[in-house]
Structure prediction request, 113 residues.
Amino acid sequence: MPLEIYIAIVSTIFLLAGFFFAKYGLFKKPTEHDSLTEKLSKGVDQEKLSEFSQREQDVLQLLCHGYANKEIAKSLNISSNTVKTHIKRLFSKLDVHNRTEALSEAKALNLVV
Prediction:
């Protein structure tokens, strides 16, 4: 058989293997969102935390870990303006005026890990 046929067969095998691995997630890296969800389930006041949307909870976790708005946006695949909106709502719900107060209040209410 000509060399082109062997190359086509090997290429097809690798293509099919790529589809298989992509479908079944054998090489899937855990996202930051997945790890945040796991952390939230441990040692926090779930009743008080339920007052916040899932996105607000994610933003709060990242905010309390010292992330900047752009880093939060990139991590959660949302825009910086959306992050600002979530932070504004968090400040309102926590009755605080800045990030430092938000961190203190979140820790006092046992909302962050």
